[in-house]
Amino acid sequence: MEIIKLQQIKKYYDMGGAEEVHALRGIDLSIGQNEYVAIMGPSGSGKSTLMNIIGCLDTPTSGLYEFNKVNVSQMNDDQLAKIRNKEIGFVFQTFNLLARSNALHNVELPLIYAGINKTERRRLAMQALEQVGLADRMMHKPNELSGGQRQRVAIARALVTHPSIILADEPTGNLDTKTGDEIMMLFEEIHKKGNTIILVTHEEYIAEHAKRIIRLRDGLIEVDEIVNHRKILNDVK
Amino acid sequence: MNFIYEIKEGLRIAFNAIRANKLRSVLTTLGIVIGIVSVTMMATAIEGVDRKFQESASAFGANVLYVQKFPWVGHDDWSIYRNRRDISLKIAEDIQQHATLIEAVAANVMTVRPTQYEDRNMKNAFITGTTDQYIYASGTTLADGRFFSQEESNGGRPVCVIGANVYENLFPNQDPIGKFVKVGSLPYQIIGVLEKQGGLFGIFTSDNRVYIPLKSFMNQFGSKRNVTINVAAKKGADIEDVKEELRGVVRKSRGLKPSDADDFNINEQELLVTTFSGFTAVIAAVGFFITGLSLFVGGIGIMNIMFVSVTERTKEIGIRKAIGAKRRTILIQFLIESSIICLLGGLLGLMISYPLSLLADKILPTAMPLSIVGIAILISLAVGVISGFLPAYRASRLNPVDALRYE
Fold it and tell me: With contacts defined as CB-CB under 8 Å, which chain A residues touch B7?
Protein backbone atom coordinates (compact mmCIF):
# COMPACT_ATOMS: atom_id res chain seq x y z
CA MET A 1 0.00 0.00 0.00
CA GLU A 2 1.24 3.43 -0.89
CA ILE A 3 1.91 5.69 2.11
CA ILE A 4 3.72 8.57 0.52
CA LYS A 5 3.09 9.97 -2.91
CA LEU A 6 4.89 13.05 -4.20
CA GLN A 7 4.01 14.57 -7.56
CA GLN A 8 6.08 17.35 -9.07
CA ILE A 9 7.07 18.67 -5.64
CA LYS A 10 8.94 21.95 -5.92
CA LYS A 11 10.36 24.11 -3.19
CA TYR A 12 11.77 27.57 -3.74
CA TYR A 13 13.33 29.71 -1.07
CA ASP A 14 13.13 33.42 -1.40
CA MET A 15 16.56 34.67 -0.42
CA GLY A 16 15.60 38.33 -0.49
CA GLY A 17 15.69 40.52 -3.56
CA ALA A 18 15.20 38.77 -6.85
CA GLU A 19 17.23 35.76 -5.81
CA GLU A 20 15.43 32.48 -5.44
CA VAL A 21 16.90 29.16 -4.51
CA HIS A 22 15.32 26.16 -6.15
CA ALA A 23 15.87 23.49 -3.52
CA LEU A 24 13.54 20.97 -5.10
CA ARG A 25 12.76 21.19 -8.78
CA GLY A 26 10.05 18.61 -9.30
CA ILE A 27 10.21 15.42 -7.28
CA ASP A 28 8.05 12.43 -8.14
CA LEU A 29 8.25 9.74 -5.55
CA SER A 30 6.14 7.02 -4.08
CA ILE A 31 6.92 5.02 -0.96
CA GLY A 32 4.88 1.99 0.06
CA GLN A 33 4.23 0.30 3.33
CA ASN A 34 7.10 -1.52 5.04
CA GLU A 35 9.65 -0.08 2.67
CA TYR A 36 13.11 0.78 3.92
CA VAL A 37 14.31 3.71 1.85
CA ALA A 38 17.52 5.70 2.04
CA ILE A 39 17.62 9.18 0.62
CA MET A 40 21.14 10.18 -0.37
CA GLY A 41 22.82 13.09 -1.98
CA PRO A 42 25.59 15.59 -1.51
CA SER A 43 24.96 18.69 0.53
CA GLY A 44 22.87 21.17 -1.39
CA SER A 45 21.14 18.39 -3.28
CA GLY A 46 17.88 19.16 -1.54
CA LYS A 47 17.68 16.08 0.65
CA SER A 48 17.08 18.05 3.85
CA THR A 49 14.33 20.01 2.15
CA LEU A 50 12.80 16.80 0.87
CA MET A 51 12.98 15.28 4.31
CA ASN A 52 11.29 18.32 5.87
CA ILE A 53 8.49 18.09 3.34
CA ILE A 54 8.04 14.34 3.73
CA GLY A 55 8.10 14.89 7.51
CA CYS A 56 5.40 17.55 7.24
CA LEU A 57 7.69 20.06 8.92
CA ASP A 58 7.48 22.20 5.82
CA THR A 59 5.14 22.59 2.88
CA PRO A 60 6.11 22.54 -0.80
CA THR A 61 5.90 25.66 -2.94
CA SER A 62 4.00 23.63 -5.49
CA GLY A 63 3.15 20.04 -6.27
CA LEU A 64 1.01 17.38 -4.66
CA TYR A 65 1.89 15.49 -1.52
CA GLU A 66 -0.44 12.72 -0.48
CA PHE A 67 0.08 11.02 2.84
CA ASN A 68 -2.06 7.91 3.25
CA LYS A 69 -4.21 9.23 0.39
CA VAL A 70 -4.73 12.56 2.15
CA ASN A 71 -3.48 15.71 0.48
CA VAL A 72 -1.21 17.37 2.99
CA SER A 73 0.56 19.80 0.68
CA GLN A 74 -1.61 22.76 1.62
CA MET A 75 -2.38 21.99 5.23
CA ASN A 76 -1.91 24.59 7.93
CA ASP A 77 0.47 24.45 10.87
CA ASP A 78 -1.85 22.73 13.29
CA GLN A 79 -3.12 20.16 10.82
CA LEU A 80 0.48 19.29 10.01
CA ALA A 81 1.28 19.08 13.71
CA LYS A 82 -1.43 16.46 14.04
CA ILE A 83 -0.03 14.45 11.12
CA ARG A 84 3.48 14.65 12.60
CA ASN A 85 2.17 13.56 15.94
CA LYS A 86 0.19 10.56 14.73
CA GLU A 87 1.85 9.43 11.52
CA ILE A 88 5.52 10.32 11.66
CA GLY A 89 8.27 9.30 14.03
CA PHE A 90 11.36 11.46 13.84
CA VAL A 91 14.89 10.37 14.64
CA PHE A 92 17.41 13.20 14.38
CA GLN A 93 21.15 13.35 14.08
CA THR A 94 21.40 15.37 17.28
CA PHE A 95 18.81 13.20 19.10
CA ASN A 96 16.74 16.26 20.02
CA LEU A 97 15.62 15.03 23.40
CA LEU A 98 14.36 17.38 26.09
CA ALA A 99 17.37 17.85 28.32
CA ARG A 100 15.44 18.43 31.51
CA SER A 101 13.19 15.40 31.18
CA ASN A 102 14.04 11.78 31.81
CA ALA A 103 13.88 9.11 29.13
CA LEU A 104 10.39 8.01 30.08
CA HIS A 105 8.94 11.50 29.85
CA ASN A 106 10.70 12.14 26.57
CA VAL A 107 9.05 9.06 25.12
CA GLU A 108 5.70 9.99 26.64
CA LEU A 109 5.73 13.45 25.10
CA PRO A 110 4.11 12.63 21.73
CA LEU A 111 1.42 10.70 23.60
CA ILE A 112 0.71 13.76 25.75
CA TYR A 113 0.12 15.78 22.61
CA ALA A 114 -2.01 12.95 21.26
CA GLY A 115 -4.21 13.16 24.35
CA ILE A 116 -3.54 9.67 25.71
CA ASN A 117 -4.26 9.22 29.40
CA LYS A 118 -1.49 8.84 31.91
CA THR A 119 -1.67 5.11 32.61
CA GLU A 120 -1.84 4.21 28.96
CA ARG A 121 0.95 6.68 28.25
CA ARG A 122 3.18 5.09 30.84
CA ARG A 123 2.47 1.63 29.55
CA LEU A 124 3.17 2.50 25.91
CA ALA A 125 6.29 4.51 26.72
CA MET A 126 7.74 1.73 28.87
CA GLN A 127 6.97 -0.79 26.17
CA ALA A 128 8.75 1.34 23.58
CA LEU A 129 11.78 1.79 25.81
CA GLU A 130 11.93 -1.95 26.45
CA GLN A 131 11.77 -2.51 22.72
CA VAL A 132 14.95 -0.45 22.22
CA GLY A 133 16.67 -2.13 25.17
CA LEU A 134 16.48 0.70 27.69
CA ALA A 135 14.17 -0.83 30.28
CA ASP A 136 16.71 -0.07 32.99
CA ARG A 137 17.38 3.53 31.95
CA MET A 138 13.89 5.01 32.00
CA MET A 139 14.48 7.45 34.81
CA HIS A 140 17.75 8.77 33.44
CA LYS A 141 18.03 12.19 31.91
CA PRO A 142 19.69 12.55 28.50
CA ASN A 143 22.93 13.85 30.01
CA GLU A 144 23.18 10.66 32.06
CA LEU A 145 23.00 8.52 28.93
CA SER A 146 25.55 7.69 26.25
CA GLY A 147 25.07 8.88 22.67
CA GLY A 148 23.82 5.46 21.58
CA GLN A 149 21.40 5.31 24.47
CA ARG A 150 20.11 8.78 23.68
CA GLN A 151 19.47 7.77 20.11
CA ARG A 152 17.63 4.70 21.39
CA VAL A 153 15.42 6.96 23.49
CA ALA A 154 14.76 9.03 20.39
CA ILE A 155 13.87 5.89 18.46
CA ALA A 156 11.55 4.80 21.26
CA ARG A 157 9.92 8.22 21.09
CA ALA A 158 9.51 7.81 17.33
CA LEU A 159 7.99 4.35 17.70
CA VAL A 160 5.67 4.98 20.60
CA THR A 161 2.78 6.41 18.57
CA HIS A 162 2.97 3.54 16.05
CA PRO A 163 3.46 5.98 13.18
CA SER A 164 3.06 5.21 9.50
CA ILE A 165 6.68 6.11 8.82
CA ILE A 166 9.90 6.49 10.77
CA LEU A 167 11.92 9.37 9.40
CA ALA A 168 15.56 9.22 10.39
CA ASP A 169 17.85 12.11 9.49
CA GLU A 170 21.50 11.04 9.70
CA PRO A 171 20.72 8.94 12.79
CA THR A 172 24.32 7.77 13.15
CA GLY A 173 25.96 11.09 12.32
CA ASN A 174 26.84 11.85 15.94
CA LEU A 175 27.81 8.30 16.91
CA ASP A 176 30.97 6.26 16.66
CA THR A 177 31.00 3.45 14.10
CA LYS A 178 30.27 0.68 16.56
CA THR A 179 27.37 2.45 18.19
CA GLY A 180 26.17 3.54 14.78
CA ASP A 181 26.11 -0.09 13.67
CA GLU A 182 24.08 -1.01 16.74
CA ILE A 183 21.57 1.69 15.92
CA MET A 184 21.38 0.46 12.33
CA MET A 185 20.73 -3.06 13.64
CA LEU A 186 17.91 -1.65 15.67
CA PHE A 187 16.42 -0.03 12.56
CA GLU A 188 16.71 -3.35 10.79
CA GLU A 189 14.76 -4.99 13.59
CA ILE A 190 12.13 -2.26 13.53
CA HIS A 191 11.79 -2.67 9.81
CA LYS A 192 11.30 -6.41 10.17
CA LYS A 193 8.42 -5.74 12.53
CA GLY A 194 6.61 -4.07 9.65
CA ASN A 195 7.56 -0.41 10.02
CA THR A 196 8.24 1.87 7.11
CA ILE A 197 11.59 3.62 7.40
CA ILE A 198 12.96 6.55 5.49
CA LEU A 199 16.61 7.20 6.16
CA VAL A 200 18.41 10.35 5.13
CA THR A 201 22.16 9.97 5.00
CA HIS A 202 25.24 10.78 3.00
CA GLU A 203 27.16 7.70 4.14
CA GLU A 204 27.14 4.93 1.56
CA TYR A 205 27.58 2.12 4.10
CA ILE A 206 24.66 3.40 6.16
CA ALA A 207 22.46 3.64 3.11
CA GLU A 208 23.27 0.03 2.25
CA HIS A 209 21.12 -1.06 5.17
CA ALA A 210 18.12 0.16 3.22
CA LYS A 211 16.32 -1.87 0.61
CA ARG A 212 15.95 1.06 -1.73
CA ILE A 213 18.20 4.03 -2.34
CA ILE A 214 17.11 7.33 -3.78
CA ARG A 215 19.88 9.65 -4.88
CA LEU A 216 19.25 13.34 -5.23
CA ARG A 217 21.22 15.89 -7.19
CA ASP A 218 20.37 19.53 -7.68
CA GLY A 219 16.83 19.17 -6.47
CA LEU A 220 15.95 16.22 -8.66
CA ILE A 221 15.96 12.46 -8.21
CA GLU A 222 19.01 11.14 -9.98
CA VAL A 223 18.77 7.46 -9.18
CA ASP A 224 16.08 5.33 -7.56
CA GLU A 225 17.33 1.77 -7.08
CA ILE A 226 16.44 -1.42 -5.26
CA VAL A 227 19.49 -2.47 -3.27
CA ASN A 228 18.87 -6.18 -2.80
CA HIS A 229 19.11 -6.95 -6.47
CA ARG A 230 21.50 -4.12 -7.28
CA LYS A 231 19.26 -3.35 -10.20
CA ILE A 232 18.52 0.11 -11.44
CA LEU A 233 14.78 0.53 -11.00
CA ASN A 234 14.31 3.94 -12.38
CA ASP A 235 16.94 6.19 -13.80
CA VAL A 236 15.50 9.64 -14.12
CA LYS A 237 18.33 10.88 -16.27
CA MET B 1 -8.88 15.75 27.29
CA ASN B 2 -6.01 16.96 25.16
CA PHE B 3 -6.31 20.32 26.71
CA ILE B 4 -5.94 19.05 30.28
CA TYR B 5 -2.81 17.09 29.39
CA GLU B 6 -1.40 20.12 27.65
CA ILE B 7 -2.00 22.23 30.75
CA LYS B 8 -0.46 19.59 32.99
CA GLU B 9 2.55 19.39 30.71
CA GLY B 10 2.68 23.20 30.70
CA LEU B 11 2.75 23.28 34.50
CA ARG B 12 5.46 20.67 34.57
CA ILE B 13 7.56 22.63 32.09
CA ALA B 14 6.98 25.86 33.99
CA PHE B 15 8.12 24.45 37.31
CA ASN B 16 11.12 22.80 35.68
CA ALA B 17 12.09 26.05 34.00
CA ILE B 18 11.68 28.06 37.19
CA ARG B 19 13.69 25.51 39.15
CA ALA B 20 16.40 25.54 36.51
CA ASN B 21 16.66 29.35 36.64
CA LYS B 22 16.03 30.06 40.29
CA LEU B 23 17.87 33.34 40.60
CA ARG B 24 16.52 34.67 37.36
CA SER B 25 12.98 33.75 38.33
CA VAL B 26 13.34 35.45 41.69
CA LEU B 27 14.73 38.63 40.16
CA THR B 28 12.05 38.64 37.50
CA THR B 29 9.28 38.20 39.96
CA LEU B 30 10.62 40.94 42.22
CA GLY B 31 8.81 43.55 40.15
CA ILE B 32 5.54 41.72 40.68
CA VAL B 33 6.28 41.27 44.38
CA ILE B 34 6.84 45.00 44.81
CA GLY B 35 3.80 45.81 42.74
CA ILE B 36 1.55 43.51 44.72
CA VAL B 37 2.94 44.77 48.03
CA SER B 38 2.26 48.37 47.07
CA VAL B 39 -1.22 47.65 45.73
CA THR B 40 -2.26 45.65 48.77
CA MET B 41 -0.76 48.16 51.18
CA MET B 42 -2.58 50.92 49.35
CA ALA B 43 -5.83 49.02 49.73
CA THR B 44 -5.10 48.40 53.38
CA ALA B 45 -4.44 52.08 53.99
CA ILE B 46 -7.63 53.09 52.25
CA GLU B 47 -9.52 50.51 54.26
CA GLY B 48 -8.03 52.05 57.41
CA VAL B 49 -9.02 55.59 56.46
CA ASP B 50 -12.46 54.32 55.57
CA ARG B 51 -12.90 52.60 58.89
CA LYS B 52 -11.71 55.63 60.76
CA PHE B 53 -14.23 57.67 58.88
CA GLN B 54 -17.11 55.27 59.45
CA GLU B 55 -16.28 55.30 63.12
CA SER B 56 -16.14 59.09 63.14
CA ALA B 57 -19.34 59.45 61.21
CA SER B 58 -21.14 57.17 63.63
CA ALA B 59 -20.58 59.87 66.28
CA PHE B 60 -23.39 61.74 64.56
CA GLY B 61 -25.78 58.88 65.08
CA ALA B 62 -27.13 56.75 62.28
CA ASN B 63 -30.79 57.70 62.73
CA VAL B 64 -30.31 61.29 63.73
CA LEU B 65 -31.27 64.19 61.50
CA TYR B 66 -29.89 67.65 62.17
CA VAL B 67 -32.11 70.63 61.34
CA GLN B 68 -29.66 73.48 60.83
CA LYS B 69 -29.09 76.80 59.18
CA PHE B 70 -26.02 75.54 57.32
CA PRO B 71 -25.53 72.40 55.32
CA TRP B 72 -22.63 70.12 56.27
CA VAL B 73 -21.61 69.75 52.71
CA GLY B 74 -22.35 72.57 50.32
CA HIS B 75 -21.11 73.70 46.99
CA ASP B 76 -22.95 77.01 46.77
CA ASP B 77 -21.95 80.46 47.86
CA TRP B 78 -21.97 80.46 51.66
CA SER B 79 -23.54 83.93 51.77
CA ILE B 80 -26.82 82.26 50.78
CA TYR B 81 -26.69 80.26 53.96
CA ARG B 82 -25.39 83.11 56.08
CA ASN B 83 -28.32 85.32 55.17
CA ARG B 84 -30.85 82.73 56.27
CA ARG B 85 -32.88 83.35 59.39
CA ASP B 86 -31.62 81.62 62.50
CA ILE B 87 -33.27 78.40 63.54
CA SER B 88 -35.35 79.15 66.59
CA LEU B 89 -36.47 77.09 69.56
CA LYS B 90 -40.05 77.41 68.37
CA ILE B 91 -39.27 75.12 65.46
CA ALA B 92 -38.12 72.43 67.86
CA GLU B 93 -41.42 72.73 69.68
CA ASP B 94 -43.36 72.48 66.41
CA ILE B 95 -41.42 69.40 65.41
CA GLN B 96 -42.13 67.85 68.79
CA GLN B 97 -45.83 68.53 68.33
CA HIS B 98 -46.46 67.76 64.67
CA ALA B 99 -43.91 65.25 63.46
CA THR B 100 -45.10 61.65 63.83
CA LEU B 101 -42.16 59.63 62.60
CA ILE B 102 -39.78 60.77 65.26
CA GLU B 103 -38.47 59.33 68.49
CA ALA B 104 -36.85 62.31 70.19
CA VAL B 105 -36.14 65.98 69.56
CA ALA B 106 -33.33 67.90 71.21
CA ALA B 107 -32.59 71.53 70.45
CA ASN B 108 -29.06 72.55 71.23
CA VAL B 109 -26.93 75.65 71.14
CA MET B 110 -23.21 75.96 71.43
CA THR B 111 -20.54 78.42 72.46
CA VAL B 112 -16.86 78.27 73.34
CA ARG B 113 -15.92 79.11 76.93
CA PRO B 114 -13.05 78.25 79.19
CA THR B 115 -13.88 75.53 81.63
CA GLN B 116 -11.90 74.92 84.78
CA TYR B 117 -11.57 72.62 87.71
CA GLU B 118 -9.34 73.80 90.54
CA ASP B 119 -6.10 74.82 88.84
CA ARG B 120 -6.80 72.91 85.66
CA ASN B 121 -8.20 74.84 82.76
CA MET B 122 -9.60 73.96 79.32
CA LYS B 123 -9.73 77.10 77.22
CA ASN B 124 -11.60 75.83 74.21
CA ALA B 125 -14.31 73.64 75.65
CA PHE B 126 -17.49 73.63 73.60
CA ILE B 127 -20.34 74.47 75.90
CA THR B 128 -23.57 72.93 74.63
CA GLY B 129 -26.95 73.77 76.05
CA THR B 130 -29.52 71.11 75.35
CA THR B 131 -32.41 69.14 76.78
CA ASP B 132 -32.69 65.77 78.48
CA GLN B 133 -33.72 64.28 75.10
CA TYR B 134 -30.26 64.87 73.65
CA ILE B 135 -28.93 61.50 74.78
CA TYR B 136 -31.63 59.85 72.58
CA ALA B 137 -31.03 62.14 69.62
CA SER B 138 -27.29 61.96 69.07
CA GLY B 139 -24.53 59.45 68.60
CA THR B 140 -23.31 59.79 72.16
CA THR B 141 -23.37 57.19 74.90
CA LEU B 142 -22.63 57.52 78.58
CA ALA B 143 -19.47 56.06 80.03
CA ASP B 144 -20.34 56.88 83.61
CA GLY B 145 -23.12 58.58 85.58
CA ARG B 146 -26.30 59.78 83.87
CA PHE B 147 -27.59 62.46 81.55
CA PHE B 148 -29.73 65.24 83.01
CA SER B 149 -33.34 64.52 83.82
CA GLN B 150 -36.38 66.34 82.49
CA GLU B 151 -36.69 68.22 85.78
CA GLU B 152 -33.09 69.35 85.71
CA SER B 153 -33.48 70.31 82.08
CA ASN B 154 -36.71 72.26 82.51
CA GLY B 155 -35.56 73.80 85.77
CA GLY B 156 -32.24 74.96 84.37
CA ARG B 157 -30.30 73.23 87.12
CA PRO B 158 -26.51 73.77 87.34
CA VAL B 159 -25.58 70.25 86.28
CA CYS B 160 -23.40 69.10 83.42
CA VAL B 161 -22.28 66.06 81.45
CA ILE B 162 -18.74 66.18 80.12
CA GLY B 163 -17.06 64.70 77.07
CA ALA B 164 -14.14 62.29 77.23
CA ASN B 165 -11.44 64.87 76.47
CA VAL B 166 -12.79 67.28 79.05
CA TYR B 167 -12.70 64.49 81.57
CA GLU B 168 -9.14 63.55 80.66
CA ASN B 169 -7.93 67.13 80.75
CA LEU B 170 -9.54 68.28 83.95
CA PHE B 171 -9.66 65.10 85.99
CA PRO B 172 -6.58 63.00 85.38
CA ASN B 173 -6.87 59.96 87.66
CA GLN B 174 -9.92 61.27 89.46
CA ASP B 175 -13.57 60.40 89.53
CA PRO B 176 -15.30 63.55 88.23
CA ILE B 177 -18.86 62.58 89.21
CA GLY B 178 -20.16 64.99 91.84
CA LYS B 179 -17.35 67.50 91.32
CA PHE B 180 -18.02 71.09 90.33
CA VAL B 181 -16.50 72.64 87.22
CA LYS B 182 -16.59 76.32 86.44
CA VAL B 183 -18.17 76.92 83.03
CA GLY B 184 -17.54 80.55 82.18
CA SER B 185 -18.08 82.07 85.56
CA LEU B 186 -20.66 79.68 87.07
CA PRO B 187 -20.15 76.30 88.75
CA TYR B 188 -21.85 73.17 87.40
CA GLN B 189 -21.95 69.80 89.09
CA ILE B 190 -20.83 66.89 86.94
CA ILE B 191 -23.44 64.11 86.78
CA GLY B 192 -22.16 62.09 83.82
CA VAL B 193 -19.21 61.39 81.56
CA LEU B 194 -19.57 60.43 77.88
CA GLU B 195 -17.90 57.63 76.01
CA LYS B 196 -14.94 58.72 73.86
CA GLN B 197 -15.88 59.14 70.21
CA GLY B 198 -12.51 59.95 68.69
CA GLY B 199 -12.44 60.05 64.94
CA LEU B 200 -11.66 62.63 62.34
CA PHE B 201 -14.13 65.31 63.39
CA GLY B 202 -12.62 66.15 66.73
CA ILE B 203 -14.36 69.46 67.26
CA PHE B 204 -17.77 68.15 66.24
CA THR B 205 -17.78 65.16 68.50
CA SER B 206 -18.84 65.08 72.11
CA ASP B 207 -15.26 64.65 73.31
CA ASN B 208 -14.52 68.35 73.85
CA ARG B 209 -17.97 69.30 75.00
CA VAL B 210 -19.61 70.22 78.24
CA TYR B 211 -23.36 69.68 78.14
CA ILE B 212 -25.54 71.85 80.38
CA PRO B 213 -29.34 72.26 80.42
CA LEU B 214 -30.57 74.55 77.64
CA LYS B 215 -32.29 76.82 80.11
CA SER B 216 -29.14 77.29 82.16
CA PHE B 217 -27.27 78.04 78.96
CA MET B 218 -29.76 80.71 77.87
CA ASN B 219 -29.71 82.32 81.28
CA GLN B 220 -25.96 82.46 81.39
CA PHE B 221 -25.01 83.19 77.79
CA GLY B 222 -28.12 84.83 76.36
CA SER B 223 -31.07 83.42 74.45
CA LYS B 224 -30.76 84.98 70.99
CA ARG B 225 -28.96 82.13 69.38
CA ASN B 226 -29.04 79.98 66.32
CA VAL B 227 -30.24 76.55 67.34
CA THR B 228 -29.45 73.10 66.00
CA ILE B 229 -32.29 70.65 66.32
CA ASN B 230 -31.35 67.00 66.63
CA VAL B 231 -34.17 64.72 65.61
CA ALA B 232 -34.03 60.96 66.14
CA ALA B 233 -36.08 59.02 63.63
CA LYS B 234 -38.49 56.39 64.86
CA LYS B 235 -37.05 52.89 64.72
CA GLY B 236 -38.00 51.17 61.48
CA ALA B 237 -39.13 54.39 59.80
CA ASP B 238 -37.70 55.08 56.38
CA ILE B 239 -35.22 57.90 56.86
CA GLU B 240 -36.34 59.59 53.64
CA ASP B 241 -39.96 59.67 54.85
CA VAL B 242 -38.84 61.11 58.16
CA LYS B 243 -36.85 63.75 56.34
CA GLU B 244 -39.76 64.67 54.10
CA GLU B 245 -42.14 64.98 57.04
CA LEU B 246 -39.62 67.01 58.96
CA ARG B 247 -39.13 69.30 56.01
CA GLY B 248 -42.85 69.96 55.80
CA VAL B 249 -43.08 70.70 59.51
CA VAL B 250 -40.12 73.06 59.47
CA ARG B 251 -41.34 74.87 56.34
CA LYS B 252 -44.73 75.40 57.93
CA SER B 253 -43.16 76.55 61.16
CA ARG B 254 -40.96 78.97 59.21
CA GLY B 255 -43.98 80.23 57.30
CA LEU B 256 -42.53 79.48 53.87
CA LYS B 257 -44.71 79.81 50.79
CA PRO B 258 -44.85 76.79 48.46
CA SER B 259 -42.74 78.72 45.96
CA ASP B 260 -40.01 79.49 48.48
CA ALA B 261 -36.91 77.38 48.67
CA ASP B 262 -35.96 75.75 51.95
CA ASP B 263 -34.10 78.21 54.14
CA PHE B 264 -32.67 75.48 56.34
CA ASN B 265 -30.91 72.18 55.90
CA ILE B 266 -31.61 68.73 57.21
CA ASN B 267 -28.21 67.17 57.69
CA GLU B 268 -27.40 63.58 58.44
CA GLN B 269 -24.47 61.26 58.86
CA GLU B 270 -25.23 59.64 55.53
CA LEU B 271 -24.42 62.91 53.80
CA LEU B 272 -20.90 62.91 55.19
CA VAL B 273 -20.46 59.27 54.33
CA THR B 274 -21.50 59.86 50.74
CA THR B 275 -19.26 62.86 50.36
CA PHE B 276 -16.37 61.12 51.97
CA SER B 277 -16.70 57.99 49.86
CA GLY B 278 -16.34 60.33 46.91
CA PHE B 279 -13.03 61.48 48.33
CA THR B 280 -11.80 57.98 49.08
CA ALA B 281 -12.77 56.91 45.59
CA VAL B 282 -10.54 59.62 44.15
CA ILE B 283 -7.71 58.77 46.53
CA ALA B 284 -8.13 55.11 45.68
CA ALA B 285 -8.12 55.81 41.94
CA VAL B 286 -4.96 57.90 42.14
CA GLY B 287 -3.32 55.48 44.56
CA PHE B 288 -4.11 52.42 42.52
CA PHE B 289 -2.96 54.14 39.38
CA ILE B 290 0.41 54.91 40.91
CA THR B 291 0.85 51.52 42.51
CA GLY B 292 -0.48 49.97 39.32
CA LEU B 293 2.45 51.56 37.50
CA SER B 294 4.85 49.48 39.55
CA LEU B 295 2.91 46.38 38.58
CA PHE B 296 3.10 47.50 34.98
CA VAL B 297 6.86 47.82 35.22
CA GLY B 298 6.95 44.38 36.82
CA GLY B 299 4.91 43.07 33.92
CA ILE B 300 7.40 44.48 31.43
CA GLY B 301 10.16 42.68 33.31
CA ILE B 302 8.24 39.44 32.95
CA MET B 303 7.69 40.05 29.26
CA ASN B 304 11.37 40.73 28.78
CA ILE B 305 12.46 37.57 30.51
CA MET B 306 9.86 35.53 28.68
CA PHE B 307 11.30 36.72 25.38
CA VAL B 308 14.70 35.56 26.58
CA SER B 309 13.18 32.28 27.68
CA VAL B 310 11.54 31.73 24.30
CA THR B 311 14.76 32.47 22.45
CA GLU B 312 16.76 30.18 24.71
CA ARG B 313 14.34 27.39 24.16
CA THR B 314 13.84 27.77 20.44
CA LYS B 315 15.28 24.31 19.92
CA GLU B 316 12.98 22.80 22.52
CA ILE B 317 10.04 24.47 20.83
CA GLY B 318 11.21 22.94 17.55
CA ILE B 319 11.38 19.49 19.10
CA ARG B 320 7.96 19.80 20.64
CA LYS B 321 6.47 21.02 17.39
CA ALA B 322 8.14 18.22 15.43
CA ILE B 323 6.53 15.59 17.59
CA GLY B 324 3.10 17.11 17.45
CA ALA B 325 2.74 20.21 19.65
CA LYS B 326 0.25 22.58 18.08
CA ARG B 327 0.52 26.36 18.17
CA ARG B 328 -1.96 26.40 20.98
CA THR B 329 0.13 23.92 22.96
CA ILE B 330 3.22 26.09 22.78
CA LEU B 331 1.21 29.23 23.50
CA ILE B 332 -0.31 27.65 26.59
CA GLN B 333 3.06 26.37 27.72
CA PHE B 334 4.62 29.82 27.84
CA LEU B 335 1.51 31.52 29.17
CA ILE B 336 1.48 29.06 32.05
CA GLU B 337 5.13 29.73 32.71
CA SER B 338 4.71 33.50 32.88
CA SER B 339 1.51 33.15 34.91
CA ILE B 340 3.21 30.88 37.41
CA ILE B 341 6.09 33.31 37.81
CA CYS B 342 3.64 36.16 38.39
CA LEU B 343 1.44 34.08 40.65
CA LEU B 344 4.42 33.17 42.80
CA GLY B 345 5.33 36.85 42.84
CA GLY B 346 1.81 37.71 43.90
CA LEU B 347 1.80 35.16 46.70
CA LEU B 348 5.21 36.32 47.85
CA GLY B 349 3.93 39.89 47.79
CA LEU B 350 0.98 38.91 49.95
CA MET B 351 3.28 37.11 52.36
CA ILE B 352 5.22 40.33 52.74
CA SER B 353 2.31 42.75 52.86
CA TYR B 354 0.25 40.76 55.35
CA PRO B 355 2.71 41.26 58.26
CA LEU B 356 3.13 44.86 57.07
CA SER B 357 -0.62 45.37 57.35
CA LEU B 358 -0.51 44.08 60.92
CA LEU B 359 2.16 46.66 61.58
CA ALA B 360 0.07 49.38 59.96
CA ASP B 361 -2.81 48.32 62.20
CA LYS B 362 -0.86 49.69 65.14
CA ILE B 363 -0.87 53.18 63.66
CA LEU B 364 -4.16 53.24 61.80
CA PRO B 365 -6.62 50.55 62.80
CA THR B 366 -7.07 48.52 59.64
CA ALA B 367 -6.91 45.06 58.18
CA MET B 368 -6.02 43.82 54.77
CA PRO B 369 -9.41 43.29 53.14
CA LEU B 370 -9.93 39.66 52.18
CA SER B 371 -11.16 40.76 48.79
CA ILE B 372 -7.80 42.38 48.05
CA VAL B 373 -6.10 39.03 48.56
CA GLY B 374 -8.26 37.54 45.85
CA ILE B 375 -7.84 40.59 43.67
CA ALA B 376 -4.07 40.57 44.11
CA ILE B 377 -3.93 36.95 43.01
CA LEU B 378 -6.12 37.67 40.02
CA ILE B 379 -4.06 40.72 39.11
CA SER B 380 -0.79 38.82 39.22
CA LEU B 381 -2.33 36.10 37.08
CA ALA B 382 -3.55 38.71 34.62
CA VAL B 383 -0.15 40.38 34.50
CA GLY B 384 1.37 36.98 33.81
CA VAL B 385 -1.01 36.22 30.98
CA ILE B 386 -0.79 39.68 29.44
CA SER B 387 2.95 40.09 29.62
CA GLY B 388 3.52 36.48 28.63
CA PHE B 389 1.27 36.65 25.63
CA LEU B 390 3.56 38.33 23.14
CA PRO B 391 6.55 36.07 23.83
CA ALA B 392 4.29 33.01 23.90
CA TYR B 393 2.66 34.03 20.66
CA ARG B 394 6.02 34.45 19.03
CA ALA B 395 7.06 31.02 20.27
CA SER B 396 3.88 29.43 18.97
CA ARG B 397 4.48 30.83 15.48
CA LEU B 398 8.02 29.54 15.19
CA ASN B 399 8.62 27.51 12.09
CA PRO B 400 9.59 23.98 13.23
CA VAL B 401 12.31 23.62 10.61
CA ASP B 402 14.05 26.83 11.66
CA ALA B 403 13.49 26.13 15.34
CA LEU B 404 15.04 22.67 15.08
CA ARG B 405 18.06 24.06 13.29
CA TYR B 406 18.57 26.71 16.00
CA GLU B 407 21.63 26.19 18.16
Answer: none
